[in-house]
Specification:
By secondary structure, this protein is of the alpha+beta class. It has two helices and 15 strands. The protein is elongated and about 85 Å long. The relative contact order is 0.19.
């Protein structure tokens, strides 16, 4: 009987120790979470700012009522407005849309870290060969070209992580939208001819959502 009481007494001590350990872990985790939230609230991270600087058009053709071929190079810069928070950009996908329909393939911008107040500049090529689109979009593009102006949207999608000191947050979806108005072949053409391409200076601000 005495041995059974000793065993049960030891089991009770182990249970109490486990409960205390579990409670201690919860308290420490709660304190860490509160500290992170306080730091986050004090620093107030701001989303990055994107500007579409220019676009060089190599090809923008409608080979059939519903087939578009596009080749262009853009220059876009991203600025981190935060003075104490760094930004990790995961792989970014860049592409062009016309009337909300994708007309190029995805071009990948490799992952990069952006420090406090830093600026990154990228100049990716974006292209799509014989991309099928809705017939009305092909007709609309041909009409826009004949009228001397084409409006499309350059989009950048990816994920970002915030870095505060040694703390790195989870991933957040990044969506960037840059409307671009290209005056093709009209009297107000401001493009610069470079070989078989035309370069347009834009300096267009982009909308950013995180």
């Amino acid at each position: 009987m005495s041995s059974e009481k000793v065993c049960s007494h030891h089991k009770g001590k182990k249970r109490k120790a486990l409960r205390r350990c579990f409670a201690g872990c919860l308290i420490v985790s709660f304190i860490i979470l509160v500290v992170i939230l306080l730091v986050w609230a004090i620093l107030q991270p701001k989303k990055p700012r994107f500007i579409l600087q220019d676009a060089t058009i190599f090809a923008l053709n409608v080979s059939a009522p519903n087939v578009i071929s596009t080749t262009l190079q853009i220059t876009v810069n991203s600025r981190n407005p935060n003075s104490k928070i760094g930004i990790y950009y995961d792989k970014l996908d860049v592409y062009a849309t016309y009337h909300s329909q994708q007309i190029t393939y995805y071009t990948v911008i490799p992952a990069v870290y952006q420090g406090h107040k830093d600026v990154n500049v990228w100049s990716p090529f974006i292209y799509g060969t014989a991309v099928p689109v809705a017939p009305y979009n092909g007709i609309s593009l041909a009409q826009d070209q004949s009228n001397g102006a084409v409006k499309m949207v350059i989009k950048i999608n990816g994920r970002v992580k915030w870095k505060v000191g040694t703390f790195v947050s989870g991933r957040y979806h990044l969506h960037v939208s840059c409307p671009v108005y290209i005056p093709l072949g009209n009297s107000k053409n401001t493009g610069i001819i470079i070989g078989n391409a035309v370069k347009y200076q834009l300096s267009q601000s982009c909308s950013v959502s995180v």
